[in-house]
Design brief:
single chain; alpha+beta; Ribosomal Protein S5, domain 2; Alpha-Beta Plaits; 2 domains; six-stranded mixed β-sheet; four-stranded antiparallel β-sheet; 27% helix; 26% strand; globular
């Protein structure tokens, strides 16, 4: 039996994109991507309480986000609809990950709701079915359901799992919310990077094609990246921004650079995870 139950606190970890190439665009406007997702030990956390009335309530709403648009509420209702489940839930969400940071926080929250409630409600959907459900909520949701560090392709739903070396990351968070749609919609975005076979990718290879657009439109992103690259030339932006990061072989090395962070910049050090904390659920 799993140790996870109604009394548990459920993690929703961040992800980093170790590279992100835009290799094309579909006729429906969706971009075709190649990326490597890495989970890190910085996370939001969720708790769940059963309801007898079948309702779904978020006890900790995000200011400015109506409940019907909140990904956690949408995820719970999606699972109810897909399985005919008549149980309800009250969701408590404690946010650590910034919105618009490129860390996948909202997607990770939604995935943890699906994983947790599929277990708690005993709806019994296999992980692959949960991944398909998650794609309806957003392109990054399936990878959190998949649960493995992975080379992802397509719109982010085709996975080739990979082993990544232990690494600690210094993540900097510019105080801007970068809207994903604005970056992907930019006319100057490079959309024709040649694809690489997953088997040929090597750790440290590639860039983030979204980075030049985000840096031009949000100077704080460029500023944080320039500072970090003084110490780690391989530093990158994650996702569509705003966060930037660099990997180090040890926490001690990441801490040394973190200690030099100027006043007015914020960030943290987080270890890379071998897999999602709920991968074996």
């Amino acid at each position: 039996m799993s140790d996870w139950n109604w009394h548990s606190t459920w993690p929703a970890p961040a992800k980093l994109n170790l590279f992100l190439h835009v290799v094309g665009r579909r006729t429906d406007g969706y971009h075709l991507l190649q990326t490597v997702f890495r989970f890190i030990d910085r996370a939001d956390s969720l708790q769940f309480a059963p309801r007898e009335d079948g309702g779904v309530t978020l006890a900790t709403p995000t200011p400015g986000v109506p409940p019907e648009r909140d990904l956690t509420v949408r995820a719970a209702r999606l699972l109810q609809d897909a399985t005919g489940c008549r149980q309800g839930v009250t969701i408590h969400l404690a946010k650590t990950l910034p919105m618009g940071g490129g860390l996948g926080g909202g997607s990770s929250d939604a995935a943890t709701v699906l994983l947790a409630l599929n277990h708690l409600w005993q709806t019994g959907l296999p992980r692959r079915e949960l991944e398909k459900l998650g794609l309806a909520l957003g392109a990054d949701v399936p990878v959190f359901l998949h649960g493995r560090n992975t080379f992802a392709e397509g719109v982010g739903e085709a996975f080739t799992d990979i082993d990544l070396p232990p690494e600690c990351y210094l993540v900097l968070h510019p105080a801007v919310n970068v809207p994903t749609a604005a970056i992907f919609g930019a006319p100057e975005l490079k959309r024709d990077t040649p694809p690489i076979p997953a088997i040929d990718w090597r750790h440290g290879q590639g860039r983030n094609d979204l980075e030049p657009v985000a840096c031009a439109r949000f100077p704080a992103v460029a500023e944080h990246l320039a500072w970090l690259r003084q110490f780690a030339p391989h530093a990158l932006m994650t996702g569509s921004g705003a966060c930037v990061f660099a990997g180090f072989p040890s926490r001690a090395e990441a801490d040394i650079v973190f200690a030099r962070l100027p006043a007015g910049m914020s960030g943290w050090v987080a270890a890379g995870l071998p897999e999602h904390p709920l991968a074996s659920l």
